[in-house]
Every structure is written in C-alpha cells, then in structure tokens.
Design brief:
Length: 467
C-alpha cells in the first residue's frame, strides 16, 4: 500500500519520484494510487504551509495537496524526455518559504561535520561531489549517506563541460568514473547531476545520452535559485556574517528555492584553507528555520522537470534497423519504423547482479518461459523469467541473455518476432539503445536569461582579472 511506503514526498504527499510509474522499485504497491485519497492535514487557508509553486507565489493561498491539478491526480503519461535535459533544470517548483540545500565541489574537510549538523537540524541536503575527491574520502560519503543526505554527481575532474566536449574531451568518462564511487549510495534511485559552473550545452547532453552508462537514471543538470557565492567571500577574506547576510538577502528576495554552497573547492586550492562553509551553515540554517523556512531534500520535490526522466522510456533498435514493437497479442516484433511508433517505448529496471527487467510504458514485462517456447511475451508478472543478463557491447548497444542461457534475437536476420533463440553469443542480436529527445523544461523568462547571462559575464570577468 502506498501508505506503507517510507518514501512519501513531504511536499506532495505521494510516493516521491515514482508517482509516475505503475511499478516502483521502492514501493510494494503495483499500481500507484491517486493522491485524491490523501487528505491535506492542514486546512485550506492562506496560512497553509504547503502553498502554490513559486510560479504563482503571489497567490499563496492555494494548498498543493488540495488543489493539485488533474495531471497530478492521475497517472502521468510517459514523457518524452532525455536522461539529461538539453538545458539546465531551473525554476524548480517549491512551495513558498521552502528551501532545498545543495553543496558542490566536495567532499572537503568539513563535509562530514556539515552533514552531521544538518541531520541534527532535520535537514537533508544534496552533496554534488567531485569524483577525484570522492575516491579519497569514502568514509565521508558513508557518513553523509548514513545521515540521510543525497550524494550527487559533479563530474570527476570538474572541467568546463561545453568547452571540454568541443575539444573532444571524454565527458562520458567524467560521469561514469564518479558514478563508480557514488553509485552504491544511489542503488535503484535517481543519480542527480549538477553541471560544473552551471555551464551546459545540448551537445554535452547528447554526448552523455547516447551512452546508457552515463545517462541511465541520471537527473539533471540541477540548477539553482540562490547562487553559491560563499567561496567568493572566502577568497576575498570576507567574514561568515557577511556571507550569511548575502545569502539571507537573496533567499528573502526569492522567497525560497534551491541553494548552493561549497563544501570543497574543486579548482581553487588557495581558497580551500579559507573555507568557512561549516560556520556559514551553522549560522544560516537555524536562522532560516526560525524565520519559518523549511528544508526539503531534492528527492522530495514534486516537479515534473525532476521526476520526468525516471518515467523516461527508450527505443530498442534491432540489427535489421527496426525498433522492437509490442503487438496486441502480447508478442514483440522487430517491426517499429521509429521510436515514436506505437508500442516501441520501453523502460529498464535494474535488478542487481547484472540483471535487468524490461517493461512497456504501461507496465507489462518482457518475459520468456523456456518451458512454453522461446517467444518473448509481455506479462504482468515480474518473476525469474522476466529477468535478463544485460551485456554491454559498446556504449549504445547491449545483448540480452534470458533465463535459459539463450540470447535474444529474432526469427531471421530480416526480423520477425523477438525470441530467446540464440544459444551462442555470435548469434545474439546487438540491440541499440535509443534515448528519446526533447526533455521537459519549463520556459525560462527573459529576466532569468538576462540574470544567467550577467552571471556568466561576471564569471568570465573574474577569470580575466585573475589572469
Ligand atoms: Zn563546481
């Protein structure tokens, strides 16, 4: 039952992030129940603490739990979304006076202490870690994870990604290497990603999205509302009080949002010794809580921009160039003309030990029972016959081996039905993984564009002054 799920969103009251899926890796319920049945514990009034998203904060008398749109009350249709969005995910829906705390560039010397302090104050933060530091401090990551914080990916060496990809830098490697360190903290969950310096381009997204290893389960890049100005304060030998004041002014002006601080210094070693972000956290968090602000974890936010990638589906292209397509009789054929053809979208669920389950977007699993025949059919049951060994051939192709040891292939080289009929690997079909494109992103206002451009200009100016 949904009510038994330990991971219900504090914002929306429904099973966080998985509300879009009929089946959940966390929840035991096979069908997500409408939040219609979830009563708002607070009366609908102007003082309701759970109010309309920031886009309409002017009228903060609406209670999300009462006034959720119909789209939220029913199963969302699968969305056309990349694993990595083509642009930064910004303008994230948060109720008024709600904050989401994130730390970049660590783990650093103070990270564990920051994590402990936040836990004592009931705050769950996201630490976007740099892989090269993370490999040296698994104990810190263990501690952060044990304290309930989220460990996100912030690349391995902290390069400027749009430039890095333009000079043929291996951006996929930047993500994959960091994941080898942090994936154990994110088993079966989304892996949140933040772009270094917030710099991003569609080219970087496309480069990452072609590779299952660097795209699957990734959500991002997660942008911010309240910029990480702390390190600049430390660099200029300014006090903790001055930094706190600047953060407070920004937060009050914006009324809430995603905050960035830095628990490490990825490319400013001279600043590392001056860092006072622990003290800043100790000063700022209790002050904000006393002012009535509440903190939520990134995985508790019910914003379509963050939740859509997990309901994402992809196409599987066979060696005949056609897409795997579900038929009305429950069999599958290598017949789809494109990834947009009916019945050609699938969702992958990792099941551990190299096994995966594949299902259609309406929740039926691919299953082959060797006692019946070698034909792969769609079934509601997720049993041993619905698990396949996932064997990567190259970044965008896999082979799938069924329970009886046979690989998935087809009736013939020209196509036909999907069958577990290849007893040897050389007869297996190499199956291409084709992510869909588009991504759901809210439109960015002209003012925000201007503010982003200004921030980018300031960054370039500070670098020029440095050199
Ligand atoms: Zn960074």
């Amino acid at each position: 039952m949904l009510a038994a799920c330990p991971r219900r969103s504090v914002v929306s009251g429904k099973c966080f992030r998985w509300a879009t899926a009929r089946r959940s890796l966390f929840c035991s319920s096979s069908v997500w129940r409408s939040p219609r049945s979830i009563r708002c514990p607070t009366p609908r009034s102007p003082t309701c603490s759970i109010t309309a998203p920031r886009a309409s904060r002017a009228s903060t008398s609406r209670c999300l739990r009462d006034d959720a749109s119909d789209a939220r009350r029913t199963l969302r249709p699968p969305l056309k979304a990349d694993m990595f969005a083509l642009k930064n995910i910004e303008n994230i829906d948060l109720p008024s006076k709600t904050l989401c705390l994130t730390y970049d560039d660590g783990p650093g010397a103070e990270s564990a202490e920051i994590g402990r302090f936040l836990k004592a104050h009931g705050v769950r933060a996201t630490f976007f870690v740099v892989g090269k530091f993370a490999v040296d401090h698994p104990d810190v990551l263990d501690q952060l994870h044990a304290d309930g914080h989220i460990i996100g990916n912030h690349t391995f060496e902290h390069p400027d990604l749009p430039y890095y990809v333009s000079v043929n830098g291996d951006v996929r490697d930047q993500i994959i290497r960091t994941n080898t360190v942090i994936q154990k903290y994110n088993e079966g969950k989304p892996i949140y990603f933040r772009a270094t310096y917030g710099k991003w381009s569609p080219e970087v997204a496309r480069e990452l999205n072609v590779d299952m290893r660097s795209s699957f389960r990734h959500v991002g890049p997660v942008y911010w509302d309240v910029a990480g100005i702390d390190c600049h304060f430390w660099k200029q030998d300014k006090s903790v009080e001055e930094a706190a004041e600047a953060y407070l002014a920004d937060i009050v002006q914006k009324g809430g949002g995603v905050i960035v601080m830095h628990d490490g210094t990825a490319d400013m070693d001279t600043v590392a010794t001056k860092t006072r972000t622990l003290e800043l956290t100790r000063l700022l968090v209790p002050k904000l809580q006393a002012m009535g602000y509440r903190f939520v974890g990134l995985d508790e936010i019910d914003d379509r921009q963050l939740t859509s990638p997990l309901s994402d589906s992809f196409g599987l292209r066979g060696q005949n160039g056609r897409f795997m397509q579900a038929s009305d009789d429950g069999t599958l054929h290598w017949s789809g003309g494109s990834v947009d053809a009916p019945g050609t979208r699938f969702v992958m669920e990792p099941k551990g030990r190299g096994k995966i389950a594949l299902r259609t977007v309406d929740g039926r699993y691919l299953r082959v029972d060797p006692d019946v025949d070698e034909t792969v059919r769609l079934a509601a049951a997720l049993d041993v016959y619905a698990l396949f060994d996932n064997i990567p051939v190259n970044p965008s192709q896999i082979m799938l081996r069924s329970h009886n040891g046979n690989y998935l292939a087809a009736d013939s080289a020209k196509g036909g039905a999907l069958r577990a009929n290849a007893p040897f690997m050389r007869l297996a079909w190499r199956i291409g993984y084709v992510p869909t494109s588009g991504g759901y992103l809210k439109p960015v206002s002209f003012g925000q564009r201007l503010s982003n451009a200004r921030r980018a200009a300031l960054f370039v100016k500070s670098k020029l002054l440095q050199s």
